[in-house]
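Worked Example 4.2. Consider the chain below.
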Amino acid sequence: MPPFHKEQLRKLFIGGLNLDTTEESLKDYFSRWGETVDVVVMRFPDTKRSRGFGFVTYENVESVDAVLIAKPHVLDGKEIEPKRAVAKDETAQSSRQEVESSHKIFVGGLASATSEEDIRNCFDKFCEEAGHGKVEEILVMKDRDSDRLRGFCFVTFDSKEIVDKVCSVKYFEIRTKTVEVRRAESRMAMMKKEQRDYGYTRRQMDDRRRDTRDSYQDSGRMRGNNFGSGFNQMSMQGSNSGGMPFFGGGSRGGWL
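Applying the procedure from the previous section yields the following structure tokens:
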């Protein structure tokens, strides 16, 4: 396993810290499960007050596994929540409830000559070095007409724990090409992400368009009853006697 893989797997995110917890007390507590090489409590840069979370990096991967098994954890009178540290953009992709229920990952950036055997060998080796986990299914996405690889696939494992480890590494090498691994998002998670990004659901957008149409009809500013052709084909056609532009289109006139 490459060194950067091992370093990421040795790191824990610690949430729910007492605001009075220091690096010293955090280190003292987590040293019960092994030798720590780095302990940090995250603080606001201006006030230096604790942000309520931190990170602990161990010398050995086994210490991380031991901490996660030994739950619950209480430090400085407050229950804390250790979790395997993952990349920041990975945690932002979906709600925790949705991503934690999945045993499937997305693998992107595959070389065109990559075979299913290449993918399986990569993740079988990772599971072997991690000491647990098993690849259950590989779905390689291909073009329907040409049967050529589309550059990505989905891999299903037998447990969430091994998915956590794989995603904490994020980058792997398959056929001398670096590929990126992410948790596979459910259709529902993708819909929620779209709603969050654009601010409206499809129904809300339809409602807004209908309300806009009705308001124009009710105000009497529409001439004729063909809103669709009059509005969508609207164009500048000179000006009226008062110097105001005339917006026209369709067969039933336009606006003044």
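The longest helix spans residues 202-219. The radius of gyration is 28 Å. Compare this with Example 4.1 before moving on.
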